[in-house]
Amino acid sequence: MRTSEQALSIIEQVKQAINDTAVEAIVFAAAEIASNKKALFEQLEALIGKISPLECTSQEWRNFRIARINFSKLLMREAATC
Asked: Which of 13, 34, 62, 72 could pair with 40 in a Cys bridge, judged by C-beta atoms 3.0 to 4.6 Å apart?
């Protein structure tokens, strides 16, 4: 699966997550299977950045915010281990 396809799939999963724990699990699972985490997370950041709060429910918007926080944490950990 290409990075863009994988990112779109993750966006849909995050959008449908029922709570913060589920969002975190989705992000960590994506990180485990990603061959290039940085490229995937950059793609996800770009896609989430294009979503308007008017296009989603408050829960979906919260999920995207939580996902971005978790992406950032993972990228910082990745950078620290290199």
From this structure: 34
